[in-house]
Amino acid sequence: MRQCEAVRSRETQRLRWRSRRGLLELDIVLGRFWAGCGEELDESEAGSLARLLAMPDNDLLDLVMGRKPCPDPALLPLLQRLKAA
Amino acid sequence: MPLPVRRFDAVIVGAGGSGLRAALELSNAGLKVAVLSKVFPTRSHTVAAQGGVGAALGNMGEDSWHWHMYDTIKGSDWLGDQDAIEFMCRMAPEVVIELEHFGMPFDRNDDGTVYQRPFGGHSANFGEKPVQRSCCAADRTGHAMLHTLYQRNVLARTQFFVEWMALDLVRAADGTVLGVTALEMETGEVVLFQAKATLFATGGSGRIFASSTNAFINTGDGLGMAARAGIPLEDMEFWQFHPTGVAGAGVLITEGVRGEGGILLNKDGERFMERYAPTMKDLASRDVVSRAMATEIKDGRGAGPNADHILLKLDHLGPEVIDKRLPGIREIALKFANVDCAKDPIPVVPTCHYQMGGIPTNYRGEVVVPAGGNPASVVPGFYAAGECGCASIHGANRLGTNSLTDLLVMGKSAGMSMVDHIRAHGAALPDLPKGAGEASVARLARLDGQKGGEDVAAVRDEIQRTMQAHCGVFRFPDLLRQGVEKIRAAGERVARTQVGDRSKVFNTARIEALELDNLYEAARATMVSAEARKETRGAHDREDFHARDDAQWLKHTLWYRDGDRLEYKAVNLKPLTVESIEPKARVY
Ligand SMILES: Cc1cc2nc3c(=O)[nH]c(=O)nc-3n(C[C@H](O)[C@H](O)[C@H](O)COP(=O)(O)OP(=O)(O)OC[C@H]3O[C@@H](n4cnc5c(N)ncnc54)[C@H](O)[C@@H]3O)c2cc1C
Description:
The complex is a heterodimer. Helix content of chain A is about 70%, strand content about 0%. By secondary structure, chain A is mainly alpha-helical.
């Protein structure tokens, strides 16, 4: 259990760093997200965030700004939280 | 304990456009190349570039590198070195076509040639009429460039060290550069990367200002590392600002808003541009608008509780016009300024965009410093390219789309110089001096052991606000003098930063503390250089010396960290093959 949490916190730390982006707009949105609720990600949310963060910056920004529809319903809940941030 | 050492022919710090272009040159020459980056290469800040890359291809009508050269020199307000500018403008078509062959998806004309857009400041026949010179890949030019160059590097077997942060330059006693120390974020391990040639391609330091269009990653690490290693920084007082960034966020509001009828108001609701530019009003040139905004704020007529911004009003256009002519503006205003601009004005301030100065190099990308009476003596083994370098192509102000051109040309040029240097020096790596890398270990130990220290975000905030208020787009003598004192005082806080989280794994707080060390050097170089330059030239705009002064100031600034020492060196007004373009008034 302890080990499981250590892995999870390492993963959270990694996601936190990967929220540093090439586009300022995303830095701001992701910064707000982490300030709001980021540390309490459950496993499936962390998985969604990892997938979103793996996207190219421009595509992710299009999703966050609502310019493009979300390609995968599974990502929708987390995307909603980013949009609300 | 000595640090673990990894050995390469070349080490490149930075995987933006310039670092990737340089790496390709070296890997294609069969050399062993390491590229270090804080973030995944295609997430480098180059991804933000939309406007395009300038090259006189002449696909839309007659154009010539010589006209491009003229526009660049005029843009630089004659502070650019004309040898470097000729070199870049002549090479530009070649590197752009090369990029096309690498697979860059440029927009095309019906005949299959690369389509070129018009852009401010691009002219035909030495300023006679506009010319279309900007090559784009839709509105994702930077993104497409990064992807294209990254793929090519993968094919060429460049070795990437992603999520590694370079910490310090390693130099021999004679000054030769031997590599860098770097921190692996995943493990917290520090490693010495030893190389025959080291390139900095770390991008700009736009985060020194409170309002900046730059991503958070642009902390000027290359500048900080160079300054700590005794290398001067050139022309750091020159920063390009955009008049309308969202106050507090920095996100750009396109100039199209004013083009469509948006107007600027001070806290009293006065349309102040009528006073500064009675004819053009809100459509006056960028510097006139920025200067007026800064003056209103300085004189206490800024809006908001801190009287620190201007209001951009466009609700009078009506929601239909806004949505039709300015798509996306409402979403941006809502998300980043929290206003519906169809009802309320957007708070805006002049916002820092691009760093003209940097690590001094020649047009071969070799770092050059004054030594033994030679103002430009080569530092063996050390190179810089991209926004962190200063060749100097952009001088006192950069022509639009010339940064991406600079990345390709100077990236390639530095890469070629490194290949020559490595081949000339044979197989053996020079010995590392005793204690190599100790400075980085000591810096980390200081940070990790700090007690009762300063909060990183608070110190960074103070630096950014000081820069914005004292050294912004329009500069006032009293504010500059106070700014120098404040920024010097902030140094004591930077030296005592502390992080709560002591873990070694992806410790973002620790990385931010290390970045702050670099950001500080860039900020200090900017403030001290700006206070000293008593003229107005290009982007350096002073209230008290409101004209260019070629008799005294047609020269480059060199700032040394040691004692804030300033030296100056002559501008090279002699191109490589053509006649000099002599200084004259810069009017558009
Ligand atoms: C919004 C915006 C739009 C722009 N549009 C245009 C345009 O249309 N045309 C144009 O010509 N210019 C444009 N520019 C300017 C241009 O995009 C930049 O000047 C250019 O992309 C900088 O590229 P670079 O290769 O120097 O560095 P960057 O792309 O900034 O890359 C820096 C690299 O260095 C790495 N790095 C930094 N520090 C370290 C360290 N300590 N250790 C390891 N790695 C490190 C980073 O991870 C990154 O990979 C624009 C700029 C902005 C902000």
